[in-house]
């Protein structure tokens, strides 16, 4: 049986393999004071599991949310570059029993210290 922890671990392992990624923080690891440079904060947002009663199949799905932070005042180019790399790295991929499909990004937001873009990656896994 696939668990939420196994899914989170597979997504985090895949993200950690992204070439040239900045430091990555996960749930319960975000720094109290943001780092001065680029960084990611990633979270797994699961949907309720579905059970297909015809063949006892369990479907787990959700969104892997990655906030990309780049220093304020440096423009959006680096954040957009990271968003493009995440799209290529996760769009329509299979790994560790997961299938990632849709990759979308939100409009950038400016904070006092950083520019932030959210990238959302839809995933699912099917177990019997």
Overall pLDDT confidence: 90
Tell me the CATH topology: STM4215-like
Approximate helicity band: 10-25%
| Name of the level-1 CATH class | Alpha Beta
Describe this structure in words.
The protein is elongated and about 55 Å long. It has one domain: 2-Layer Sandwich (STM4215-like), CATH 3.30.2000. It is an alpha+beta fold.
Itemize the secondary structure elements and their pairings.
Blueprint: H1 4-16, E1 24-25, E2 39-46, E3 50-52, E4 57-71, H2 77-90, E5 93-95, E6 98-105, E7 109-110, E8 114-127
Parallel strand pairs: 1-2
Antiparallel strand pairs: 2-4, 3-4, 4-8, 5-6, 6-8, 7-8
Keywords:
single chain, 128 residues, alpha+beta, 8-stranded mixed sheet, 43% strand
TL;DR?
The protein has two helices and eight strands, in the order H-E-E-E-E-H-E-E-E-E. It has 128 residues and is an alpha+beta fold.
């Amino acid at each position: 049986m696939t668990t939420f922890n196994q899914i989170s671990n597979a997504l985090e392992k895949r993200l950690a393999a992204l070439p040239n990624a900045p430091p990555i923080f996960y749930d319960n690891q975000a720094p109290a004071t943001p780092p001065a440079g680029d960084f990611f904060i990633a979270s797994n947002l699961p949907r309720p599991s579905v059970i297909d009663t015809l063949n006892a199949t369990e479907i787990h799905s959700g969104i892997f949310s990655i906030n990309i932070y780049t220093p304020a005042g440096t423009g959006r180019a680096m954040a957009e570059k990271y968003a493009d790399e995440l799209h290529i790295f996760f769009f329509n991929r299979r790994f560790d029993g997961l299938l990632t499909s849709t990759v979308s990004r939100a409009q950038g937001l400016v904070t006092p210290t950083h520019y932030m873009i959210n990238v959302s990656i839809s995933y699912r896994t099917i177990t019997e």
